[in-house]
Write a structure and sequence with these properties.
There is one protein chain. Helices cover about 20% and strands about 30% of the residues. With about 170 residues, it is of the alpha+beta class. The protein folds into 2 domains: about 30 residues; about 120 residues, Elongation Factor Tu (Ef-tu), domain 3. A hairpin with a 2-residue loop joins β1 and β2. The radius of gyration is 22 Å and the shape is elongated. It starts with a helix and ends with a helix. About 20% of the residues are buried. Bound molecules: flavin-adenine dinucleotide. The site of flavin-adenine dinucleotide (FAD) has 18 residues, from β4, β5 and α2.
């Protein structure tokens, strides 16, 4: 904000306070606003309801990382921005566990993929790395998460560069 603007705003605030008028509403700024970035709100009613998906491809990237390609059972496309994640609801021995995994495909296709890296002693990651198979059904919540890039827009490309290497480096 320019110094003159700041001075004007401060004077206006003082005058409003002195004469008992209500203060002008302060605008909430996102932490990245000064860089011109916007944080998209990620929670919509649609993303708060779980949706059934099927594993349509399993790529065992390394002994400790697996990429799961998912399709919505109803054929509905996934609308998401790069950087968002899905919450997978995985049933293990009758208990439903929820874990977040970043989407690692480009927006626009009928599928989404996530790469899961084994965590020592972790229940869901070990289960998925060792046991996930094509045809398995699970549910997901989301996509969720802020997209903070002003230059990244939803795209219609269907390409999917494998993020496995990145995931296995995490
Ligand atoms: C936004 C977001 C995005 C993510 N994206 C990815 C992704 O793309 N890929 C990915 O691989 N992961 C990702 N994660 C991490 C992922 O959500 C899981 O946390 C991870 O897979 C571990 O889950 P788990 O069930 O295997 O481990 P958990 O069972 O939750 O255990 C985690 C750790 O805690 C220890 N632990 C568990 N219970 C106890 C206990 N009672 N006492 C002591 N220690 C215990 C375990 O031994 C293990 O080391 C993401 C997380 C977030 C928040």
């Amino acid at each position: 904000m320019a110094p003159f603007e700041t001075l004007r705003r401060d004077l206006r605030t003082i005058l409003h306070t002195m004469f008992g008028e209500p203060l002008p509403t302060f605008r909430r700024r996102s932490p990245l606003a000064r860089h011109g970035h916007t944080l998209s709100s990620s929670a919509t009613p649609e993303t708060l309801v779980s949706r059934p998906v099927r594993i349509v491809e399993v790529v065992r990237e390394t002994p400790d990382a697996v990429t799961l390609h998912l399709e919505d059972e109803t054929g509905r496309a996934f609308a998401f921005h790069p950087g968002q994640f899905l919450s997978l609801l995985v049933s293990i021995e009758g208990v439903e566990l929820r874990r977040a995994y970043s989407i690692c495909t480009m927006p626009g296709g009928p599928r989404v993929a996530v790469t899961v890296k084994r965590v020592a002693g972790g229940r869901v990651s070990n289960h998925l790395v060792d046991r996930a198979a094509v045809g398995d059904r699970l549910a997901v919540l989301g996509p969720r998460g802020a997209s903070a890039s002003p230059w990244i827009r939803p795209r219609t490309a269907t390409s999917s560069s494998s993020p496995a290497a990145a995931a296995s480096r995490r």
